[in-house]
């Protein structure tokens, strides 16, 4: 059974505590989820998912109040995903994380500098939720940088990490969290680009979700 699309979705404002957690804590939990999932076999990780088939991986039986959408590794993708009613959605419009596994021996300050420089280079950003458009200027207030937190990589991790184990991490970027979604169909479309020092583009993605909330 399909349900009519609700007219609008409210976003929690910056500085609030959606579902009892700070935005930083939600971001940390988002990256703990992403990094915990093996990158192999190819196509099994939500980042490399082209259709939405893997969108619930690691979340299917979760008691979290928030359902995480995913990046796409610089690709253009259209995903269809069925999720439970009553959960909010974390939208990772443009994000980055740096870990000691990727940068061995780096201090927390050095990891923080890596992610800051990455997100300082964002040149374009937009979000559409059920037809409501958010410009780059609208989204700037949602940028959040975390402090140090800990993640755990599996044997074959994302970002080319091959050694399993715990690692310190720091994240930055534009993360938005919605109110709980009622039954219905929702469309969420986000895209963005990072520039390079020569004035070109070194990363861009264009991600569309059709969420079927039951």
Keywords summarizing the entry:
about 210 residues, alpha+beta, five-stranded mixed β-sheet, four-stranded mixed β-sheet, 9 strands, about 15% helix
In short:
The protein has helices at residues 23-36, 108-120, 136-139, and strands at residues 66-68, 76-83, 88-99, 122-129, 132-134, 149-153, 165-177, 184-195, 201-213. The protein is α+β, with helices and mostly antiparallel strands and 214 residues long.
Structure description:
This protein is of the alpha+beta class and 214 residues long. The chain has three helices and nine strands; from the N terminus they run H-E-E-E-H-E-E-H-E-E-E-E. The mean pLDDT is 94.
The Rg value, from CA coordinates, equals 17 Å
- The low-confidence runs, each spanning 5 or more residues with pLDDT under 50, are none
Instruction: State mean pLDDT (0 to 100 scale).
Output: 94
The percentage helix is 10-25%
Helix/strand layout:
Elements: H1 23-36, E1 66-68, E2 76-83, E3 88-99, H2 108-120, E4 122-129, E5 132-134, H3 136-139, E6 149-153, E7 165-177, E8 184-195, E9 201-213
Parallel strand pairs: 1-3, 2-9
Antiparallel strand pairs: 3-7, 4-5, 4-8, 6-7, 8-9
């Amino acid at each position: 059974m399909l349900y009519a699309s609700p007219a609008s979705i409210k976003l929690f404002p910056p500085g609030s505590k959606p579902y009892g957690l700070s935005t930083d804590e939600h971001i940390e939990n988002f990256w703990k989820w992403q990094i915990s999932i093996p990158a192999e076999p190819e196509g099994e990780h939500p980042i490399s998912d082209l259709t939405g088939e893997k969108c619930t991986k690691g979340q299917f039986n979760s008691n979290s109040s928030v359902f995480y959408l995913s990046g796409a590794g610089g690709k253009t993708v259209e995903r269809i995903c069925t999720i439970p009613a009553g959960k909010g959605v974390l939208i990772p419009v443009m994000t980055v994380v740096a870990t000691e596994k990727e940068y061995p021996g780096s201090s927390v300050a050095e990891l923080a500098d890596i992610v800051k420089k990455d997100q300082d280079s964002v040149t374009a950003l937009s979000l559409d939720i059920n037809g409501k458009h958010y410009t780059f200027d609208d989204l700037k207030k949602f940028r959040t940088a975390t402090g140090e937190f800990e993640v755990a990589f599996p044997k074959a991790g994302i970002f080319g990490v091959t050694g399993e184990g715990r690692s310190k991490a720091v994240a930055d970027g534009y993360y938005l969290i919605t109110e709980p979604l009622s039954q219905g169909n929702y469309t969420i479309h986000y895209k963005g680009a990072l520039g390079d020092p020569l004035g070109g583009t070194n990363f861009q993605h264009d991600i569309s979700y059709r969420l079927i909330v039951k």
